């Protein structure tokens, strides 16, 4: 039942993201004389970010399996790798943002850029929160083992992490791929 | 060090807010001192503040709503007084102050009266009606309540530290952007709603999961009481709509704090997008408020007509139809923004279509009453008052749903009269009906009938005397949110509305007196059996107030009106039933998580408003630490031994048998 409730929360989170997607769609052309997506996006960087996140979903799956078979060592290893990959994703994204700002293409430049930074940044904030949660779950298993309530929370964490991956697929399709074609 | 906060934030040059704040502080201090001297603090902490019991949390929600009703009502009195006197005159309140009053009035009434009232009643009643021990996530329930209280706290702090928004209750840009609202008012508004919005979302998730996953044996969906169906529909709306509010306010805050350009005039921002987003939330919001009210009436009308609800299945269909169509009408809030006749026509027609399922419900309530033995108790009077009032409000709604008509009536007092007509008719009357109906269940004694009827008549009459003149003034061209006016034809209507406000105020005072008198006379008004109204659903099968575990043994349901069937069977079998098989019951432990989390949220909210960044970080760290501390808990349940369960249940059964033996005629 905990997982059921968490699914519903994820649905509500997706509604929130869809508002940011909608705002992005409305403000796509509002570059206020500034740069557009095609001029700014570095698809190679996006590809590496995507690779990191997708791989981290795989390692998160491995961690779930390790938890199912109650193997602490493999669980902690898989979670650590998931966390590292998540941090790589974040580092690349922060670098991309900093680069854009330094080129005068920060979120205050135009409505398009405000929408871009908010949508992608919101996802990044969710990933950051996810990493905090990941560390907490590693600490919980280290301190108390695979207790029933901790396993329930692990399931919720895994759902969250995979959902973030799905949102990322939507982002790189709608924002980066479609945006670069413009 | 303290961001934008300094001594100039306290309005020492404005006597009215200062006196108001002073009075409130004195009252709060007096209550705290009285509680402290009487030694109530440990009781309040252990039994209420840290409670994860849905019944206690429900009561606290309703208490919050009623206290905020007083604040919102005082705002209304100030507004109607201003309009009664401000003819060829500056009135009592200058525009900078008046604008804050009507903005606070709307914000408080919707978010901190309407929402907590319906969520509180749903929390109190739904697990009992479903025959289960609590909602799906009890500790989360506590978190949700306390975050809502945080929002209310921040709005009230704005009265004395800083200012409130001057933008109206929906803070449209560009007026709400930093360049036109440079003060902290809009920030108070936005952060308060962001925080309480999380609380509301959490309640939504909780109640949907409860209705879908936690029903007692035999209670299929089509055997649930109607109030549970409307709870389901309303909370599905909360889950779908509140994230939109969160996202939209976030965009506004990003514009204000970090110079983004979502809705600004410069940089390509689009203020029309705000209108679409905020009303995509705003329209479902009014159904979030109205659907539980309809559910309350679906409980009250059958009980006091002595008949089952007419047309149960059509009621369910109508409820879910309203739920879905409510997402298809949002543009009717801005017909005049320029979408063109084709788009306007679509939304106008959709707005008329949504009146149809509501009409179905009204007919079902009327047919429930027809042929029944109607008892005109206070809840029933609120129900009948609702039916008349809401129909009128709905008709004026269909009128403004016609785009050419709306071009004349948009943002006039006609519109103001319409939405107060439907909200007061449905939500306020429903809240009062529910409050009076379920009060004995929550506290073990009924409310005084005489004062209840007095309150009803003053409120009903006062409502009409206040708001019918506003329809007239709107037709004569008066717009909303006016601080003063010079048109002679409007004056008599404004004075009439002022008189009506006095009547409604007397109605509210009657409610307060009713509560005081009922507490004084609680022994005469005692509900010993748990079923003071001879009602039909499972909450009345428990003692009043119910034990913490609700039911000693979870009931087995075989049809609609589950409790009525239990009573029928008991009368038939002449009470020759075996004693149930009592077992140990595990209940969740109380937890300070909700309260502590909300404390840090309040700190964060206040710090964000005043740009005190180190305090924001502190609040965030504290909130996270609270969650981790909760996650580290080893003992989350406690056991009530079977002996104790048996003792409590036997006492209630004895009272019920005594009462039934006193009734000689068969059912």
Protein architecture, described:
The complex is a heterodimer of chains A (182) and B (667). Chain A is mainly alpha-helical. Helices cover 85% and strands 0% of the residues of chain A. Chain A has one domain (40-181): Cytochrome c oxidase, subunit III, four-helix bundle (Four Helix Bundle (Hemerythrin (Met), subunit A), Up-down Bundle), CATH 1.20.120. The longest helix of chain A is centred in the C-terminal third of the chain and has 34 residues, at 111-144. Chain A is elongated and about 55 Å long. The termini of chain A are far apart. By secondary structure, chain B is an all-alpha fold. Chain B contains 20 helices and 2 strands. A two-stranded antiparallel sheet of chain B has the order 1-2. The longest helix of chain B has 36 residues, at 95-130.
Entry keywords:
heterodimer; A: 182 residues; mainly alpha; Four Helix Bundle (Hemerythrin (Met), subunit A); 6 helices; elongated; B: 667 residues; Cytochrome C Oxidase, Chain A; 2 domains; two-stranded antiparallel sheet; 2 strands; 67% helix
Radius of gyration of chain A: 18 Å
CATH T-level topology of the largest domain in chain B: Cytochrome C Oxidase, Chain A
State mean pLDDT of chain B (0 to 100 scale): 94
First-last Cα distance of chain B:
73 Å
CATH architecture of the largest domain in chain B: Up-down Bundle
Number of strands of chain B: 2
Largest interface (CB < 8 Å): A-B, 38 and 42 residues
Helix and strand element order of chain B: HHHHHHHHHHHHHHHHHEHHEH
Helix and strand topology:
The complex is a heterodimer of chains A (about 180) and B (about 675).
Chain A: H1 2-27, H2 37-40, H3 43-68, H4 72-102, H5 111-144, H6 148-181
Helix pairs in contact in A: 1-5, 1-6, 3-4, 3-6, 4-5, 5-6
Chain B: H1 15-37, H2 41-49, H3 54-85, H4 95-130, H5 138-157, H6 185-213, H7 226-258, H8 271-305, H9 312-325, H10 341-353, H11 355-369, H12 378-400, H13 403-409, H14 413-443, H15 449-475, H16 491-520, H17 562-572, E1 585-588, H18 593-609, H19 613-631, E2 637-640, H20 642-662
Antiparallel strand pairs in B: 1-2
Helix pairs in contact in B: 3-4, 3-5, 3-16, 4-5, 4-6, 4-8, 4-14, 5-6, 5-18, 6-7, 6-18, 7-8, 7-9, 8-11, 8-14, 9-11, 12-14, 12-15, 14-15, 15-16, 18-19
């Amino acid at each position: 039942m905990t997982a059921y409730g968490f699914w519903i929360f994820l649905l509500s989170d997706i509604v929130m993201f869809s508002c940011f997607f909608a705002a992005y769609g409305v403000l796509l052309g509002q570059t206020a004389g500034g740069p557009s997506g095609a001029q700014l996006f570095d698809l190679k960087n996006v590809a590496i970010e995507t690779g990191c996140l997708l791989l981290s979903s795989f390692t998160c799956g491995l961690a779930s399996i390790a938890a199912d078979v109650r193997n602490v060592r493999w669980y902690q290893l898989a979670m650590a790798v998931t966390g590292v990959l998540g941090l790589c994703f974040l580092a690349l994204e922060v670098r991309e943002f900093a680069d854009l700002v330094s080129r005068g293409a920060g979120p205050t430049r135009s409505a398009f850029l405000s929408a871009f930074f908010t949508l992608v940044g919101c996802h990044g904030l969710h990933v950051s929160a996810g990493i905090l949660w990941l560390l907490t779950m590693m600490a919980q298993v280290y301190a108390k083992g695979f207790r029933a309530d901790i396993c329930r929370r692990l399931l919720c964490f895994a759902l969250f992490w995979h959902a973030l991956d799905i949102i990322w697929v939507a982002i790189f399709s709608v924002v980066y791929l479609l945006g670069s074609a413009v | 060090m303290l961001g934008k906060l300094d001594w100039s934030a306290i309005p020492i040059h404005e006597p009215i807010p200062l006196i108001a704040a002073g009075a409130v502080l004195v009252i709060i201090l007096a209550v705290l001192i009285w509680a402290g001297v009487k030694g109530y603090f440990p009781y309040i902490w252990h039994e209420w503040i840290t409670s994860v019991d849905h019944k206690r949390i429900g009561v606290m929600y309703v208490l919050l709503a009623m206290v905020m009703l007083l604040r919102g009502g005082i705002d209304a009195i100030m507004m109607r007084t201003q309009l009664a006197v401000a003819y060829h005159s500056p009135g009592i309140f200058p525009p900078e102050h008046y604008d804050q009053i009507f903005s606070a009035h709307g914000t408080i009434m919707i978010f901190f009266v309407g929402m907590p009232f319906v969520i509180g009643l749903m929390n109190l009643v739904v697990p009992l009606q479903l025959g289960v021990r609590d909602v799906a996530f009890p500790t989360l329930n506590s978190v949700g309540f306390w975050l809502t209280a945080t929002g209310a706290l921040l709005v009230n702090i704005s009265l004395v530290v800083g200012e409130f928004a001057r933008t109206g209750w929906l803070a449209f840009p560009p007026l709400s952007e930093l360049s036109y609202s440079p003060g902290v008012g809009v920030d108070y508004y936005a952060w308060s709603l962001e925080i309480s919005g999380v609380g509301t979302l959490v309640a939504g998730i909780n109640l949907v999961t409860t209705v879908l996953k936690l029903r007692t044996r035999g209670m299929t969906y089509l055997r649930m009481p109607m109030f549970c169906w409307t709870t389901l529909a309303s909370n599905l709306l909360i889950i779908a709509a509140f994230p939109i509010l969160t996202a939209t306010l976030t965009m506004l805050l990003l514009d204000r704090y970090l110079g983004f350009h979502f809705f600004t005039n410069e940089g390509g921002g689009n203020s029309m997008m705000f209108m679409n987003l905020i009303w995509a939330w705003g329209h479902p919001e009014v159904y979030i408020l109205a659907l539980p009210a309809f559910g309350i009436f679906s409980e009250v009308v059958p009980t006091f007509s002595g008949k089952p609800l007419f047309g149960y299945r059509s009621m369910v269909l109508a409820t879910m139809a309203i739920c879905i169509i409510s997402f298809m009408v949002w543009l009717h809030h801005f017909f005049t923004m320029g979408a063109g006749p084709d788009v306007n026509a679509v939304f106008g027609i959709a707005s008329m279509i949504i009146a149809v399922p509501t009409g179905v419900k009204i007919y079902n309530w009327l047919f429930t009453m027809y042929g029944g033995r109607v008892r005109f108790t206070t809840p029933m009077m609120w129900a009948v008052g609702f039916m008349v009032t809401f129909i009128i409000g709905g008709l004026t709604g269909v009128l403004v749903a016609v785009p050419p008509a709306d071009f004349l009536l948009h943002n006039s007092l006609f519109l103001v009269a319409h939405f107060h007509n439907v909200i007061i008719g449905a939500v306020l009357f429903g809240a009062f009906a529910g409050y009076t109906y379920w009060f004995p269940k929550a506290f073990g004694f009924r409310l005084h009938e005489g004062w209840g009827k007095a309150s009803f008549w003053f409120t009903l009459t006062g409502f009409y005397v206040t708001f019918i003149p506003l329809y007239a003034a709107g037709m004569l061209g008066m717009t909303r949110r006016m601080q003063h006016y010079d048109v002679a034809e409007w004056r008599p209507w404004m004075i009439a509305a002022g008189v009506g406000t006095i009547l409604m105020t007397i109605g509210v005072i009657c409610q307060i007196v009713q509560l005081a008198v009922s507490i004084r006379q609680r022994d005469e008004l005692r509900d010993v059996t748990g079923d003071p109204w001879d009602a039909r659903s499972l909450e009345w099968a428990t003692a009043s107030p119910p034990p913490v575990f609700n039911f000693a043994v979870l009931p087995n349901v075989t049809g609609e009106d589950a409790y009525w069937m239990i009573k029928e069977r008991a009368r038939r079998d002449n009470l020759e039933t075996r004693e149930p098989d009592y077992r140990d019951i595990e209940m969740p432990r109380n937890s300070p998580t909700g309260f502590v989390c909300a404390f840090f949220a309040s700190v964060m909210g206040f710090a964000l408003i005043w740009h005190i960044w180190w305090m924001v970080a502190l609040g965030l760290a504290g909130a996270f630490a609270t969650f981790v501390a909760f996650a580290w808990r080893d003992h989350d349940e406690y056991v009530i031994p079977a002996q104790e369960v048996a003792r409590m249940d036997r006492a209630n059964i004895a009272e019920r048998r005594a009462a039934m033996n006193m009734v000689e005629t068969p059912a």
